[in-house]
Write a structure and sequence with these properties.
Helix content is about 40%, strand content about 15%. The chain contains eleven helices and twelve strands. Helix 1 crosses helix 3, helix 5 runs parallel beside helix 11 and helix 7 packs parallel to helix 8.
């Protein structure tokens, strides 16, 4: 006689559910994983047994049964201060919230653009790449492996991958046109790291807006940085020391714009009397400085949410479905850091 080993109290197994419902383990598995046909009376018995036993199915067992993984990996380029970054924290928060709504497990993975390491994300059902900074080869690798993936904050036109990005060029043009309409002609730009598409497009938009308004583009008014506050400080000091300093500056991020404000105060300058400033991001910290920062709002939360929605669509669709390219609009938010001249 063979005895069935009982599960410890509070740790019920699928065998316990099958025994109580009077059906086979296969039937229980089909009901739990919503796979295959099951008679309605048997389905009801299984559901009642699950409730009575307070049975919690194993996530790993479900993946084995369905052949699908509900793990989503969010890949963010590693850089100094990433966990103090408004951009990164907003993406993580919004991605995590929507993954929870879709019952997806979120895995955070920091990538090193210099390591050129292959993807090692076994068990991931889908990938969200936050920008492409030395990680294009990983996207190509994922596409070849048939792993559903989405790129956010970068519109990749030459790869068959879904993308959700922001109209950085249009946002930059909004900022510069606003300054021109206030009467400014000596307008500088402190850029971010132009190896990123966002910074490159903001620089492109700055140049395009000047040319549209018949204002000469001065190379000495373009100061390129790596998005850090340290380099923003150096750029601001150079601006204020120029023989013919600009009357306005468009800065590629709010955190850098706030550093420009700090340098101005240290040098006894007044914002906006001595320099008008427009940032980019709509970081809440821009509201609490000595002067509320005029900025270009980019929809970071919406971008992350659209990325999760698109990845969920790809994960639940047949292979070969066409990718989407989504570009979200920006909005100029006028506050106190600019003046008419």
């Amino acid at each position: 006689m063979t005895r069935t080993k009982k599960s410890p109290s509070g740790n019920k197994s699928i065998t316990d559910v099958a025994r109580l419902a009077g059906v086979s383990i296969t039937t229980v598995s089909r009901v739990i994983n919503k796979v295959g046909a099951v008679k309605e009376k048997n389905r009801s018995r299984v559901i009642d047994a699950v409730k009575e036993l307070k049975f919690q199915p194993s996530i790993f067992a479900q993946r084995l049964a369905t052949g699908k993984s509900n793990v989503v990996a969010l890949l963010i380029p590693r850089y100094e201060g990433v966990f103090y970054s408004f951009y990164a924290l907003e993406l993580i928060r919004a991605t995590g919230t929507l993954c929870e709504a879709f019952k997806l497990d979120l895995l955070l993975h920091l990538t090193d653009s210099h390591a050129k390491a292959p993807l090692n994300l076994r068990g991931a059902g889908g990938l969200i790449f936050s920008d492409i900074i030395g990680t294009r080869y990983q996207i190509e690798e994922a596409l070849k492996a048939g792993i559903p993936c989405v790129v956010i904050n970068n519109n990749v036109e030459d790869l068959p991958v879904s993308c959700v990005s922001v109209d950085n060029l249009g946002g930059a043009k909004q900022a510069v046109n606003y300054l021109v309409n206030l009467g400014h002609k000596r307008i500088a730009h402190i850029s971010g790291d132009i190896s990123t598409q966002a910074a490159a497009k903001r620089l492109e938009g700055y140049v395009a807006a000047l040319r549209d308004n018949k204002i000469p583009v001065r190379e000495d008014y373009i100061l390129k940085t790596d998005y850090s506050r340290g380099q923003a400080r150096s750029a601001a000091e150079r601006l204020f020391k120029m023989p013919e300093p600009p009357t306005a500056v468009f800065v590629a991020s709010d955190s850098m714009a706030l550093e420009v404000m700090a340098v101005a105060r240290e040098l006894g300058k007044n914002i906006p009397a001595d320099l008008s400033i427009v940032g980019f991001d709509d970081n809440p910290s821009g509201l609490y400085g000595p002067v509320a920062l005029t900025t270009v709002r980019q929809p970071l939360i919406q971008m992350a949410e659209e990325g999760v929605k698109e990845l969920n669509r790809l994960m639940n669709s047949k292979k070969g479905i066409a990718p989407k390219k989504i570009i979200l609009p920006t909005e100029l938010v006028v506050r106190e850091s600019c003046r008419t001249i």
